[in-house]
Amino acid sequence: MTTREHGAVRLPIAGLLLAAGRGSRLGRPKATVEVAGERLADRGVRVLREGGCLPVYVVLGAETIVVEGAAEVNNPRWESGMGSSLRSGLEALPDEVDAVVIALADQPLVTSAAVARLTAAYADGARAAAATYAGNPRNPVLLGREHWQTVHALAEGDVGARPFLRAYSHLVTTVACDDVASPDDIDTPEDLERMQSLLTLGGDGLAGAH
After folding, report:
1. How far apart are CA 114 and CA 91, in angstroms?
2. Per-residue pLDDT tens for 23-77?
3. Phi and psi (nearest 5°) for 184?
4. 34: which strand partners?
5. How far does the chain reach from its first CA to its final CA, in angstroms?
6. How many Cβ atoms are within 10 Å of 44's Cβ, its own excluded?
7. Separation of alpha carbons 175 and 82, rounded Å
8. Which sign, positive or negative, has the C-alpha torsion 42, 175, 187, 18?
9. pLDDT tens for each residue of 139-165
10. Residue 135 contacts by C-beta under 8 Å, 6 or more apart in sequence?
11. Do 183 and 134 form a contact (C-beta atoms < 8 A)?
């Protein structure tokens, strides 16, 4: 678990996995899809925990499941898009949490090493950080508590933290993750088949993703 000293109190950094969608193009809710023998929701929670996040929360909607190692957050407005899931997740975080790393369930090539780079940036003083690939900010994203209200207000429709990252880019520490992760996502059956091939070969699947 990554923490920061604040006076005499050690403040934790939480993990937040967004996994509420129906997966309309895929044909089933992404949270329950198995890749390399592991459900996407379980994989995402594990990656956040291994990267230094605790507690971890998973936002669900289209499918209600139990995810070991995480607290489940129900988003009754999940059909309105990812923005509502991000808002629900931020609202669920306890007062003692100082920052959160946000990840998406449908990006199984995001690794614990990428999360660890964000938590290391936090430990070095970053209050907002984003993993970058070829210089472009993507997921995962780290947000200090003081930014949550702004992110909450900007998260509408099917966008999450992206409007905040663009509007407040001067506050965001960029963390290159090209060598340890990939933001490739699973939207279609073809995407899933490709991801299965990459990850069932062993390792993190990155060699075939780049």
Report:
1. 25
2. 888 988 999 999 999 999 999 999 999 999 999 999 999 999 999 999 999 999 9
3. -55, 135
4. 39
5. 30
6. 30
7. 23
8. positive
9. 999 999 999 999 999 998 888 999 999
10. 174, 176
11. no
The predicted-structure confidence for 87-129, as pLDDT tens digits, reads as follows 999 999 999 999 999 999 999 999 999 999 999 999 999 999 9
Amino acid at 1: M
**DSSP letter assigned to residue 30:** G
Separation CA 83–CA 80 (nearest Å): 8
Is the CB of residue 6 less than 8 Å from the CB of residue 96?
no
Residue type at position 157: G
**What whole-number distance in Å separates Cα of residue 60 and Cα of residue 9?**
31
Rounded CA gap, 83 and 67, in Å? 22
Closest CA to 191 of 35, 12, 2, 21: 35
Where do we find the tokens 């998260």? Answer: 155
CA angle (39 as vertex; 37, 13 as ends), nearest 5: 125
- Sign of the Cα pseudo-torsion (78, 81, 87, 89, in order): positive
What pLDDT score does 67 carry? 96
pLDDT for position 209: 66
What CA dihedral angle connects 56, 61, 63 and 67, to 10 degrees? Answer: 10
Strands (E), the chain: 3-6, 9-18, 34-35, 38-39, 56-60, 71-74, 99-104, 128-133, 136-144, 173-176
Which is nearest to 113 in space by CA: 194, 192, 178? 178
